[in-house]
Structures are given as C-alpha cells and as structure tokens.
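Bug report (template v2)

What were you trying to do?
Predict the complex of my protein with iron/sulfur cluster.

What happened?
Run completed; filing so the output is reviewed.

Input:
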Amino acid sequence: MRAAVQTHRVGNTPDLQSYDHVVLFTSGGKDATACMFDLLDRGVNPARIELHHHEVDGRGPAFMDWPVTGAYVAAQAVAFGVPLFRSWREGGFEREMLRQNAATAPIQFETPHGLMRAGGGGPRNTRLLFPQTSADLSVRWCSAALKIGVGAASIAGQDRFLGRRTLVVTGERAQESAARARYSTFEPHRTDTRDGSRRPRHVDHWRPVHGWDEGRVWDALQRHGMRPHPAYELGWSRLSCMACNFGSAAQWATIRLIAPALFERIAAYEDQFGRTIQRARSIRTLADLGRPYPAALSRPDLVALALGESWGLPILGLPSAWTLPAGAFGEAAGAT
Ligand code: SF4
C-alpha cells in the first residue's frame, strides 16, 4: 500500500518521485514561484503538481489583498500547465476581523470534482481587532485563519489524499526573518495521519527554497522568464497582502496614494476598534512618515494592473528581456 512507503531523503531533499501529489501553496510571490521552478528543474512530473491559492479576501471585494493576485496566480497555473485549486474562508479577512460573539466562518475549497465546504461552527468569539504584528499565530490570526487553516482544510477534506503520499510545498526562506529561519526544511505536514487507523494519509511538508538567498530566487525567475507579480514592480519587496499589518511607512504612503478609499476604510476600522494595526502608530501616521514608492507615481499602468482583477498580459518572456523589479532587495516589511 503506497501510504506505507517510507520517505527516502538525500539531505533535506525528499524522494520527489515517491509522491502521488505535489501541492504547492502559493500566493503568486517570488518564493513560491521559485519553488515551482525548482520542482520542475528536479524533474517532478507536472501531472502530479497542483497549485493551491488561499484567497485572503474570501472571494469577496478586495480588502486586504492585491485585487490582481487571483488572476496572476491563475495565469501562472496556465503557464506551468498545472491545475489551480482556490480555497478561502467565507467572508475572508473582513468577516473574520468583524466577528462579534460569532463562530468563525466555514471554508470553501475547489477540488477536481467541484466545490466543497467544511468547518464553521465552533466557539463563539469576538475579534473586532486587526491581527497583531507578531510571529505568534494566536494573535497574528490572519495567517492561521485565512491561509494555514484553509490549506489544511482543503487537504483534510478531500478523500483523494487518503492512502496516498502527498508533498505540500511552501516558499518560506530562512533569510526572511529569525522566525522563518527556525522552520524545518522537511517535516510531516499538519494534515498528516500516516499512523492513524481512520482516514490515513501521508502528507509531508517541504520548503525547498528555505536556504536560498533572495538573489537565487530572482535568478530562478529570470532564468525562466517569469514576470513577477506587479507589486514587486511597484516597489514591494515581498508579496504579502497589499495592506499587510506589517506594512512599512513607505507602503502605507503608497497605498494611500494609489487606493485612497481602501486606505480610509482601514483607517476607519482603526478608529472604530480603538487599536491600530501596528501598536505604536496608526496607518495615517505611518503614511505621513513614508514616501510613496517612485513607480507608484510614474507607472499608472502598473497601478491599474495591480488594482485590477484580470491578467491579460504575457506572463512568460525571454530571459534576456527580463528585468529585476523595483522592489527586489528592498525593505523586508511583512516577514515574520
Ligand atoms: S500577508 Fe500580512 S495581512 Fe496577509 S495574512 Fe500574511 S500576515 Fe496577515
């Protein structure tokens, strides 16, 4: 039975040919994109690879995330020739943040056989608070509620992973932060039940670019001619949510410039909650302290692309025509 096969590893690299499914969790960022190229370069059969994208805003109107991200990830999936499965918590970030004596919302996830729904219910709680800027996921609730928990639900909820070997791949790098440096390169995934008698599934978690520096990541994108997400071209060095709670002064100044209505909605929530996103300063103060990224002023085409919901451009080009985006090697706001 395949689930009983042991994982053979060379160093921290699992035996990639031993897996039935290779599930790459991606938000379209450079590190997950580099993971995809690494899998292909190592000879993993694309027929076994699938992209999973957790939509932070829950398929509703953009609130925290870049409006174009869903379309960008879909264009990547087409370019790679692999399926894309989207998953989200109903109501996304905003509903979770506004929970008041209410249970967390159910999760929906796409599967090869249609849309499924799981979870919801559970204890009633009140948030009425932005996630805290901490590596502790119990207070930085967005990562747990909108990404990690959603990804886990989509694997645990699908019988196609039972009795099979699945490799979950994510793109965290040690260089990003002290917390990420402590992550294991290879470990059982949180959905692993290989030793259970009920619903056993073998699920490993691999971080293939954990030891890579940023230059190696950009080299991979250039070598394959992959256009990076427009957030990088605007000046962001990491593809987090557009309005990530870890945003720098320059990022908040840029958001206020390019998406003033959204900025004001977030600022109004800070007023309503009586607690700012970042403990020390409101986003209005942060924006006053920062200067917008130059590309946000000089490239209205990029701003429109990033704030739109479609992607109609080539995503792959010639490596010789590839250029490093403005945000490369910039401030590392957003890393935990
Ligand atoms: S990118 Fe920022 S706001 Fe979005 S889920 Fe991660 S920590 Fe939360």
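What did the reviewer find?
The radius of gyration is 20 Å. Residues 56, 64, 131, 140, 142-143, 146-147, 240-241, 244-246, 334 surround iron/sulfur cluster (CB under 6 Å).
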